[in-house]
Amino acid sequence: MRYCINCCIHLLPNDLHRQCFRCRGPDHNNQKCPVCRGENKIALYTDSKQMKWLAVLEVRTDHCESWNGLFCLRKGKLCSLMFGLIIMTLVMVSYMLTGAKHGLLLIPSPFHYGAFASNPSLMDNESLSDMKDHYQPSKMNISYVKDYPSIKLIIDTITSKIEFITRQRPDLEELRKQEPHMFSVIPNKFLPNSKNPCWYEEYRGNTTTDPYATNSYALYSKRFRIIFDYLRKVFWNHLYHYEDKHYRLRCLPHFYIIGQPKCGTTDLYDRLRLHPDVRFSAIKEPHWWTRKRFGIIRLRDGFHDRYPVEDYLDLFDLAAHQIQSVLQSEEGKERGKRNNIIIGEASASTMWDNNAWIFFYDNSTEGEPPFLIQDFIHAFQPNAKLIIMLRDPVERLYSDYLYFASANKSAEDFHEKVAESLQLFEGCVLDYSLRACVYNNTLNNAMPVRLQVGLYVVYLLDWLTVFNKDQILVLRLEDHASNMRYTMHMVFQFLDLGPLSEKQEALITKSPASNTRRPEDRSLGPMLPTTKAILRDFYRPFNTKLAQVLFDDAFLWKRT
Which PANTHER family did the record assign (predicted)? Predict the structure, then answer.
């Protein structure tokens, strides 16, 4: 059906307005026809412009068809517009990606970088050999002058908020309420003729029972299953039989290597385990105190079933078997021989990682954790010995970044991540205490790089609230790398280990360094000079306090 635009009446097939019966019929009068006089005309608009009244458009009685036509018209224009925008966006992205590499961006980046400079003493995470590496300067020479002052203001704000306040130590009953099962398994008295905290525990299984069937370390990791297969085979040979009952020897470590990550803990662990009187857990880093007992395998993966304390104790069964062999020997029974074997555990997260507290201990005070890892370790082992290996926190952070970053690693990317992390940390200290920010799980996960791990003195002061200073040995990776024999002697003396033959000592001190920097990371070179300057300013007040606590200016990490 077709209609006249003006009077909306039936038209002849040729659509000519003059043939409209009503407008041009035999009785038509121009003076009387309201259409011809211009009344009640329908104004049409196309692209927001009113059409002339002589314009004739085709209008259909089916209103859906009318709107569909208009919709198709607009949809076509919209698709064209979107397609154009997509093409333009792709061109711009390609331009920025290529331009950023060559310093060709028309719009300046918020961060400006300086020339790469060689660093004569850049060390890797837990790397010793890399300390002697010298990197060639980069050809890049982009100005970074505008970067430093703005970030320096952030650092000044953080520095103004630093307060080292002694934490309130929780009492033993509060700890019992939080971990009743742990306290039911670990006794408060241990065997007198062992350096380690060991005790006998009744075993109620039979010869067909698998003592490690439910061990979470064996269930969740294939590489640990070989160890537990061996333990199953020898388990019954090491039970102590008394009055028709079976007992197994349980032990906790005599000492802990508690930190820090990328500071040489792997190398120290590998050398210490070569000592004939030292035994470690079946795996190097159980991370039980900080993560596994809360059910954390990787925090980003959420929570799993909590690893009970029995699973952790199973890791020391190999060492317990050797200790029991001495205790049960005829010579040991007759002379009351004291066993010289000591057990160690080396989880680099123990010193600093308290991220899980907020999910389990809800009675916090102003965002600070009411209980820390050291509270529980001290409750069971007040005489435990602790070893801490530290390095320049600036170099530690870059090493940490290179180790954990998965893609697009570069000195420039590291610089941007440092700047972002500093901004996040500043936002926290403006509202909360320093301790609350250091142990803030949300903040720690949000920061692109782990700035907080290098705040050594914050963690050390909290450990000193429960342990005496003579129970903690603090070493520097720089000293360990330059004079390994001296630092290892310090460790042996601290742990009361007996003298070694020259051959044994040479084996320990002259073996190759462990966990050195990967070749692909070496090619990236050192961090940017401006990044180093920023981080030096950030860590300076913390290093100053650390040097005061330890009475050793070497922990200032000043460059000469």
Answer: CARBOHYDRATE SULFOTRANSFERASE 15
